[in-house]
Structures are given as C-alpha cells and as structure tokens.
Amino acid sequence: MDDVLTLKQIAQHLQVSERTIFRLLERGELPGFKVGGHWRFRRGVVDYWLDMRMGRMGSGELLDLDKDLGQHPLPISDALTRENALLIVPEGSRREVIEAFIGSVRLPEAVERREVVRRVWAREELASTALSDGVALLHTSRWEARTLQEGNLCAIGRLTAPVDFGALDGLPTGLLFLLLAPNAQQHLLLLTRATRLCRHPGFLPLLRAAATPAAVIRLVRQTEGLALEQGAVAI
To answer: In whole angstroms, what is the distance from residue 94 CA to residue 121 CA?
Structure first.
C-alpha cells in the first residue's frame, strides 16, 4: 500500500490531472517529497490524507477535483434509491446512531452488515466525518478494501434528535449520508460530490424539510443540476 509513486503515477492513481497535483503541491496541501529534484508520493499516505482532508477542502479545491473526476458520470442521485432516501434514525450515542442508520439501509448486494458498521465506525474514530451545518458523510476508509463490489450506494438519514459528532463548528449532527463505492476512485468522486452538494446554498435546510423519499431524490437531482449549470462556479 505504501508504494512510492511518481507524479504521473499518483495522478493516474487518483484519476486526476497532473495539473491538479501541481496545484495541490503549490498550496502545500498534498503530502509528497523530492528525490533528485523529482516529486515522489507514498500511495497509502496520499489516500489517508485525502480521506482525512476531504471535508475541510475549500470550494476551489473541491471544484478542481470534481472537474478532473467529472469524466466519470456518477451523480449522487444515481446511487440513491427510494428505500434509502429518507431513513429516520432514533437518538442515541454516536456509535448507536451509526449502527441504527446502517441497520436500516437497504444494501444493493450481499454484504456482511456488521462489517460495514465496524469499518464505518473505525473510520469515524480516526477523525469525525461531520461537516459544518449539522451533516456527516459516513464512509469506510478509502485506503482499505471495498465493502461493495458491484455498485455505488448513497443513503440519507435524519436523526430524531441531533447528536454531537465532533464537527469543527461545534454544532450537533442531524443529517447522515452513507457513501459506499466498489473502488477508490468512485469513492473519491462520491465524497467530492456529496461534500459540494451539502455546501450548496439552501440544500441542507430543504433536505431537513423534505417529507418523503421522492422529495429527497427530487431535491438531490435538482441541486446536482444547478451545480452542473453553474459550471466553473464553486459551490
């Protein structure tokens, strides 16, 4: 996992352009080192960094990643089914909430549910996946083997009472996303697009007010459509 990669190889591994890698290096936001004047990267370190850093990336960084990854068609709404669009999660501790949420998700393939819970909780213990404004993007660690093998999954849950997830803004978390993908590249794309979706003006209040799964799916699709229309405008 800790193979040393060249700049071209790390760009291929992340499926982004070499230009994006240079931008991240110029900002001092990508872990790398030089050997004989050439950049080198440890794959496991970069994967760990991206997973920990995603929720704190600025809009410009997220937009850059999304543009590079945009060659892969993967709308969040395509991974969101009616059964998983509005799951009501009872209050409890952070661990209990995660267990209840994942326990109610309809998984698209035969997966050991307890293993999904274990992996999501292990990732959460490393660093909170909570963004600002009361939402958390639950997922397994990007640098480990995938839990799903055949397709992508997005599930959205609403807590009956917000829980402290350790968000940087200090606000409790009342909305949960579960994001699972069959490979590291799609995992990165799901996280990037879900983060941008949650930062879109007005999206989270409307999501909290949505009364049905159909309304949630419609809201996600409409917001994704606005993001595409905005093009270069960071959301």
So the answer is: 9
